[in-house]
Amino acid sequence: MTSFTVNGQPVHYRLDPRTPLLWALRDASNLTGTKYGCGMGQCGACTVHIDGLARRACQVPIGTIEGAFVTTIEGLSRDRGHPVQQAWVAEAVPQCGFCQPGMIMAAAALLERNANPSDADIDAAITNLCRCGTYPRIRRAIAHAGRVIRGEPLAAAPPPGIDPADAAAAVPALSPPPKLSDR
């Protein structure tokens, strides 16, 4: 049995110690925010924090992290209020969204160590791949989150927990498109 802490909760996995952390999180703990991308540790979709460091969960056998502290995207902030998550929204980073949990985890680990990263620091720390190519927005969001961490207020991001019904009520109804005969 392998034991460590996930998102502040002690867990005991009765899995083969060679099981990749990715599958323990997704299959045994139902923490599906950690994504399977390439399975080779290259894309970064499975990035989590292990003892505060960004690591590719597909490459970490659970038997090697006995007693460690693991944080997934679900544990980064229960209300999506972490500065990186808020900056991601403010800078409209997500497109398809698949890589975003791993990207956010990598950015949060970087900013924990360096709240004022240079472009070179970001390039060195964020090696995750984004198939949609949102890299300019990702860089802006990381810089934005760094400013928030350093004390600047984040004015552009909406508060977490907006009820979708409330958001939909604020959008005016669209009129139907004109008929072809009316054009």
TrEMBL record:
Alphabetized Pfam families for the sequence: Fer2 (PF00111), Fer2_2 (PF01799)
UniProt KW keywords: 2Fe-2S, Iron, Iron-sulfur, Metal-binding, Oxidoreductase
Ranges where the 2Fe-2S ferredoxin-type domain occurs: 1-76
Database matches in InterPro entries: 2Fe-2S-bd, 2Fe-2S_ferredoxin-type, 2Fe2S_fd_BS, Diverse_Oxidoreductases
Ranges for region Disordered: 155-183
Listed Low complexity bias regions: 163-173
Biased composition annotated in UniProt, kind: Pro residues: 174-183
Protein name: (2Fe-2S)-binding protein
Organism: Sphingomonas quercus
